[in-house]
Amino acid sequence: MHTHRLTLPNGIRVVLVPTADTAAVTVLAFYEVGSRYETEDLAGASHFIEHMCFKGTARHPTTLDISRTLDSVGADYNAFTGKDHTGFYVKLQADRLPLAVDLLEDMIYRSAFRQADLDSERQVIVEELRMYEDNPMMAIDEVMESALYRGSTLGRRIGGTAETLAGITRSKLLKYRDAYYVPERTVLAVAGRFDETEVRQLLIAKFGRKPAHGRGRAFRPFDAARAGYRAPRVVVQNRESEQVQLAIGFPGYRMTDPRLASLSIMSIILGGNMSSRLFTEVREKRGLGYSVHASSSPYQDIGALTVQAGLAKDRVQEALGVIVAELKRLKDKDVPAEELARAKEFAKGKTVLALEESSHLADFYGRQELLARRQETPEQKIARLFAVTAADVRRTARETCRAARASLAAIGPIGDGKPFAAALGEL
Predict the structure, then answer these.
(1) pLDDT tens digit string along 28-58?
(2) Do 193 and 130 fall within a single domain?
(3) Could you say which of 32, 38, 50, 121 is catalytic?
């Protein structure tokens, strides 16, 4: 698969990923801004702006006008806000490409931000936050990261709080948008079936007119060595429920760290699928809970290894003991060759299958360009994963799975969190 990179006259970076064996095309607009860029009084602003871009423009006055335009051609469309990026995408029939480019540009740069819409959408977001709070499975990661990244904007909720949202005025929101929605922080990714000459002309005509200036401040990098890790951090939210949600996190590697491949393979072996060690030991053999998995998530400066589980409320300590034992086993013994090979093939299969979709292709290449300013092909990524050795996995486990750097969050009828800290101390 070949890709083309170009830069529009105003500095917007573009990644084109043409594929012949599809009838669809995805246009994705990425912006290098998210919750970690916000000051305390603007917590939730990035997510607020994402919502407001769907509320109407001069040419498409209401949310209904936007949705009807896209629904009339059967498009798949949405937006998302992370801690370090915001994205908007439209996936539709290849011959409707001009519609996607035109509507995205109109929504992103020409939204009205009417006061009435701001007031109503603010309440919608508050209800969204409450939905997460009422669902421990959805909330547990943010609770854990509040401990793992304590003292950093990475530890904040992406959506902010009801209190911070109440203080974000229209003028503050527009000032924040104008500082960060600028060409030097923008990547456009187009993937699927399209004519490259047509796409270049469309993007130049629409997105290429945005003025090339902005004063958005950079985020403060997270330094794990100075984060004050001395003992396991435990955050407990006691509430009545039939299940306990548990998440354990350790500082990991940034997205350009060569050790990230080893951490990815290790997380698959630990809890990446239904034949992983944690799934087998926690669920299948002992019946301690329904869900358990492990994953790695990198940012530009740091990352995390996370284990998350939904556990029987009367057997949480037993389950935590099993999880700790599996983490120790990764540190103490080399992974058998057959198990290592299975994890690599699993990673390869998931990568190949995901990139069958134009939307995933746009995300794969666009995210790299935005946050790492590089382009690694799927083949290169797979080659890095296949180069991981058993010694690499063991070394990675020893570097990451350390008691002093562990952060644990638990939601449910738990009581005192001290036994959790004691269990993690066994690492």
Answers:
(1) 999 999 999 999 999 999 999 999 999 999 9
(2) yes
(3) 50
